[in-house]
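Hi support team,

I submitted a single chain yesterday and got back a structure, but I'm not sure I'm reading the token output correctly. Could someone confirm the output below corresponds to the sequence I sent? I've pasted both exactly as they appear in my results page.

Thanks,
R.
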Amino acid sequence: MAKAIARAISEQKTLIAEAGTGTGKTFAYLVPALLWGGKVIVSTGTKNLQDQLYLRDIPMVRKALNAPVSIALLKGRANYVCHFHLERTLQNGRLTSRDDVGYLREISRFIKSTGSGDKAELSKVPESAPVWNLVTSTRDTCLGAECQYYQDCFVMKARKEAQQADVVVVNHHLFFADVALKDTGVAELLPSANTIIFDEAHQLPETATLFFGETVSTSQVLELCRDVLAEGLAHARDGADWPRVVAPVERAARDLRLAFPQDVIRLAIGQIAPSSEFFPALAKLKDELDGMIATLESQAERAETIEQCRARAVELGAKLVAWNAPGEQMEGAEFVLWIEAFTSSLQMHKTPLSIAPIFSKQRDGASRAWIFTSATLAVKNDFNHYMSQMGLWNEPAQSWPSPFDYGQQGLLYVPENLPQPNSFDYTDAVIDAALPMIEAAGGRAFLLCTTIRAVNRVAERLRDEFEKRKLPFPMMVQGEAGRTELLDRFRSAGNAVLIGSQSFWEGVDVRGEALSLVVIDKLPFAPPDDPVLAARIEALEKKGLNGFVHHQLPAAIINLKQGAGRLIRDERDRGVLMICDPRLISKPYGRRIWQSLPPFKRTRDGEVAKAFFIQQRED
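Hi R., thanks for writing in. Yes, this is the structure output for that exact sequence:
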């Protein structure tokens, strides 16, 4: 694999490289990149993986090769403490909770001793603490070169280091946010980069779709109103009656959300009735926002921060107008317009049907090497689905299998007599089938669900059952703590049961006996009410293709391969993969699915699966 990547780098070509678990793909791309790469950008799936590459993997390879390369880490600006916003928050005292007051004290201590300003270094303040929003900047709230702290700015420092380094580690969100917004410092790096490596490349289609689309939301409008009121009262109290300036805009934003009485809903624009309150409410919000912009224009020279609010308001207004403007095209891509309502906000999305034309255009121009690597890019060695999503037609693709002995190390168990996944009592039937397996495994299990609703139901039932049966297994449930904390607790318990949804299907590495059973409740098909999926299927069917065969099925297989990949992480791991969905056996496409999984021994007999654990203990 390293040879193939070295060839692509030296010839400035593209390579799609699938490498099974345990092949050492990180080293396979780092060795040639550090030896031949020139300026290299490595983009990975998450900030955790970014930190792992930067702090552990690259220094280890650099030392082994004795390669004189410099490395930099670049994250989105929300990861760096902002001197200006920290000082403002300390002065304003707008904090509501006692926790936040304590966290703010920690952050102001931290800023005096840190070299990077990266919040990942400050473990005393949880990443999800609301106070971070008040002490970091966004593209809208950064004063740029006008800022009195510009010389000390951690974001600018990180970008400067990245420009000078040989190897820069970013993540996919940052990479595509930059391609779309030109705001993260990657834009300055791209021209000089000889090699771009995407690790966890299976995540790219979804991440790129997010950034090549546009989203405008009522919460952005309400946030803007909050800032306009604060800045107006602080710097131009006599210039306008600020509460009366923002009130009609806030009311219009809330009325727009109330156009849909349901709690959570997703609709394509074509599914919204022409008589719906939504369309007049949207027009009303645009008008009220225009009124606020007029006031801001008259006061903008009073303070830099008021001018900033004016610019934000103009940009939001333009997004609201452009959202359903007729015939809007971008870089040759077609879009689907849809809305998503949450309990207290409404988001309006404009999502490209395919990112292939946009991404191809991004790759045109300077010749450089593009490496796409992951454990899951192909469906039974067929890369067509991934290539067509990313616009990588006719590019070379290769697969390197895992060195693990899956036939000896693992067992695929599909229980008999389960109801159809859409039946009312399906989740309970899954729990009934999984319980004897959890007992036989001695806990040490992941239950991976396809929905949050299933996670909550599984957790509720298992709590009762564990209590009834006096089972001593600690239980960890997604949402009850951060992902990293849950995994640390799971590893150290040694006999725990962890219940999670999508965020635990990938990028999770638990080696050894702590994890011996992975239960998957359903085949991970995308929800049928997804407006973007519906539009993509329609577009494929217009071309005479089958939406299920050419899109839904390969996407589900790649996702399932990720979930299944949690079980065997090194050559000593052993365990059972239990997939409860009867469609794996009953549907004609089921065969294609299980043939894409690692070559485990297979059984439908629960006793055989239990015996696997007994054998494991005896060994």
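A quick pointer for reading it: The longest strand covers residues 335-341. Let us know if anything else looks off.

Best,
Support desk
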